[in-house]
Task: structure prediction
Amino acid sequence: MSNQGQLHHVEFYVNDLTVTRSFYDWLLPQLGYQLFQQWEHGFSYRLGDTYLVYVQVEDQYRHPSYHRKHSGVNHLAFHVDSFAYLQQLRDDIKKKGIPLLYDDRFPHAGGPHHVALYIEDPDRMKLEFVAPSL
Result:
């Protein structure tokens, strides 16, 4: 089977690499990612053939800062295996004080047939975790 068309990697510039690293060092292993690369100004995590790269933005490019409602990437969505796992992830996220989005409509904020959890990373990038339908 060819991997033509599959994502190879996605790279993000971040405002504070130390804060971002702490956040993703906890989150991505929860989803099965493994640390892939690290260097002075960045790091990456890999799952299968795809990896996510986080790089410290240079000072002269910090402003205007990222906002998901501007042109560009709005969010990343990750599969999770079960609703039970989604609930556990939600509990863990709450304990860590990570901002939840649309929590008043959990687990159907994306619609009545969409089971998901939404959060923000340190740069306010929206992350979505999608479980199989109930």
Q: What stands out?
A: The chain has two domains: 1-58, 74-134. The chain has a mean pLDDT of 95. The domain at 74-134 is CATH 3.10.180.10 (2,3-Dihydroxybiphenyl 1,2-Dioxygenase; domain 1).
